[in-house]
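Batch job 17 of 40 flagged for manual review because the log was empty.
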Amino acid sequence: MSRLDQNPIGNALLRNLGGEDFAKLAPHLTRVTLDKGQCLISAEQPIRHSWFLTEGIASVVITTAQGHQTEVGVVGREGMVDMATIFGVDRSAFQCFIQIAGAGYRMPAEVLSPLINTVAGLRRVLLPYAYNFLTQVSNTALANAAFTIEQRLARWLLICHDRIDGDAVPLTHEFLSLMLNVRRAGVTVALQKLERAALVETSRGVIRITDRLGLERLTQDCSPSREPLAPAA
């Protein structure tokens, strides 16, 4: 089995670990391809694996008893799935699935959990990330309660843009409707407004960001708390 090299690894959390701490995780990390729609974590089910993304985006959603879903957070190459493991909990209240296909590393949760308790350097990397993720969730709640659909859509596009290479975000209106918890017609109208303002261009299944600064100006009141992507190296 070849030794996993830390330096070129595409996940910020793994890359920010000290060499000795990374060496404790490395034998248990398995490189995986992540397909669109793949479920990583099921709500209220035992967590078998933790996932460190290097490409693509995962969506964290909550589901009502009636089956209605809404997104509460997004995870990319800055982070990991699922937060519950960081806090020593063996199951999550949320479902997590891949919304933009990519790749990453999988590790048994039963291995990672005790390491978090015993390896101080690992906690110093994971706990700030968990706080940053909670900040993102809080800002999402604020945006959903207080801001227009186009502002919420612009903010969501920026969150995705931070986590991918290039300016093209491969998402359909139907998927955006689920993620933003609005009707599909509302997504269409919001995208048309952003396109008329020359902030994005749309084609079938793809939204291309053409003016990031314009999107940031539109969303400047939506995220009063900073949402850093990862703790400093």
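Reviewer: the log was empty due to a logging misconfiguration, but the result itself is present. The longest strand covers residues 49-63. Unflagging and moving on to job 18.
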